[in-house]
Structure formats: C-alpha cells, structure tokens
Design goal:
By secondary structure, the chain is an alpha+beta fold. The protein has 7 helices and 8 strands, in the order H-H-E-E-H-E-E-E-E-E-H-H-H-E-H.
Length: 279
C-alpha cells in the first residue's frame, strides 16, 4: 500500500507541468518575467560606523531614482532593542545605538520594484554564523548590476581575509584554525588538571592521581570543541568597531590576557621542564 502511494505521488509530481497542477509556486508566479537577481555571502567582515554610512549612502541613491524609502533596522547588542530608521545618515547621528548585534538595509519589493536590496549584516542569534548576506534583485538589469557592484566592492574591502574561525573558510585557513584550537584545547585541559591537583593533592600512586593522569587525553576533545565554539562567537562573522561595538568587542580586546591566564599553569610547567633539563 505504501509502495502504491509513493508511485502515485511520483506520477502526479512528474505530470504536474503537463496537468498544470503545482507546476508554478506562488512566489515564482509573482516574479516579473524579466526578474534578475544577484546574491553573495561574506563569511567574516569588520565594519565601522563610517563603513555603514557609506553602505547606506550607496543604497539611498536608488530611492532618489525610483522613489520609495530606505529602511534601516538596527538590533542592539543585547538583542532587546530594535531601532528602525529611514535616514541614510543615521550612523553619524547622536542617536545611534553604540553596541550593535545586527544591521539590515532594505529597499523595494523584490517582485514589483525595478530594484530591491536586502543587505543583512550580523544576526540576532548568538549561534548564527551566516555572516553578511547581500541580495539585489528587480526587473531593471542595469540598475541591479550597478547597485550590486557598488555594494559588493564596499563589502569586499572590509572582509577579514586572515580570519581562522569564521564560516566558508579555505582548507588552509580551516586547518590553521583547527591546529590553533587543538593546541589551545590540550593546554587548557592540562592547566585545569594541574589546578585540580593543587586543590585535591592526590597521594602518589592513588587511583585519583591515575585518573588525573588519564583525564587530559579523554577531555581534550570536548575542550577543543568548546574552545572552537567560543572562539567563533568572540571572533564572529561580523565585528563592529569605530564609534560602534558588538557584544564581544571587550572580550576580543582581552582575549590575549584571558588565554594567557588560563594557560599560565601549563606554560609554567613547560618552562620549568625546559630549564631543569638545561641545568
């Protein structure tokens, strides 16, 4: 019976274009016949308030030509406040939100306007690593191509080419990031074990000491995974600077000292071992 049902479904699906049943979706039907669309993702990008002003100025040239209104939506760093503005100079005003999680520029209806744009920078979700997404579409091919080219050039100028923890990385960058995470994960695990030994002071030859000797090799994998996720959040796909900041700006500034403090027990043991051999 189940097999017969699958055959019927496949038959209806294949015959759809001939029978006129389900051949065209509602969104496809709404698109003009000359619909034109250009898209691109930017895995990791760093932007200042001045960069956002330039992006807004580029997009604001379209309403001047075709009418309509530019919509800018800003999500605060804590995700609790959302501000909407139609002023392309918003990021140079005194009312700008200083701590930003995401910014979105929208103009036009993609199915009716000669040109429409949706530029999404960042995400309201902490664990979303989609980066920056640009979508320009419409029926005016020349206007769509021109706007996309101008925005693409501006965004490419601020891509973080040396980022090791973002999405869409090259194989070399990914392997480099994984190597750093592997070393950090192992050293962090060793530091934690050393701290636990200091607290519990297991006696020589005890089962607790044996467990602490084995634990680094068992715990390194989970610690590496957690370290990788934390680094991807702190050094996320979108980083704001200048007059703006994002939720992890302070952590990025203190990251070197935080990592040094966490690794200090392992580093101390390493230096002591090296100098004791020389002596």
């Amino acid at each position: 019976m189940k097999r017969l049902r699958n055959i019927v479904i496949i038959t209806v699906y294949l015959a759809g274009p001939l029978l006129g049943t389900g051949a065209v979706s509602a969104s496809d039907a709404a698109k003009p016949s000359e619909f034109f669309e250009l898209q691109r993702n930017y895995p990791t990008i760093r932007l200042t308030d001045k960069d956002l002003n330039r992006l807004a100025n580029i997009i604001s040239s379209v309403p001047k030509q075709f009418g309509g209104t530019l919509e800018i939506q800003i999500t605060s760093g804590n995700g609790e406040e959302t501000v909407k503005s139609a002023d392309s100079r918003y990021f140079s005003t005194i009312n700008v939100i200083p701590n930003v999680r995401a910014v979105t520029f929208r103009y036009g209806d993609p199915y009716t306007a000669p040109v429409s744009v949706n530029l999404s920078i960042g995400s309201a979700s902490t664990w979303d690593w989609n980066g920056t997404e640009l979508d320009v579409s419409g029926s005016d091919h020349a206007a769509v191509s021109s706007l996309f080219r101008d925005l693409d050039m501006e965004l490419q100028a601020h891509e973080a080419t040396m980022e090791l923890f973002g999405a869409g990385l090259s194989t070399v960058a990914f392997m480099g990031g994984m190597s750093i995470v592997g070393v950090l994960g192992f050293l962090i695990t060793v530091s934690i074990i050393r701290f636990l030994k200091y607290i519990f002071a297991p006696s020589s030859g005890s089962s607790l000491e044996t467990a602490m000797e084995i634990l680094p090799w068992m715990a390194t994998g989970p610690v590496c995974l957690l370290t990788f996720k934390l680094l991807r959040v702190v050094f996320g796909p979108v980083q704001f600077s200048g007059a703006l900041s994002d939720p992890y700006t302070v952590l990025r500034g203190w990251s070197f000292w935080i990592i040094t403090a966490v690794l200090s027990p392992a580093l101390y043991d390493g230096f002591r071992y090296v100098f004791s051999r020389k002596a």
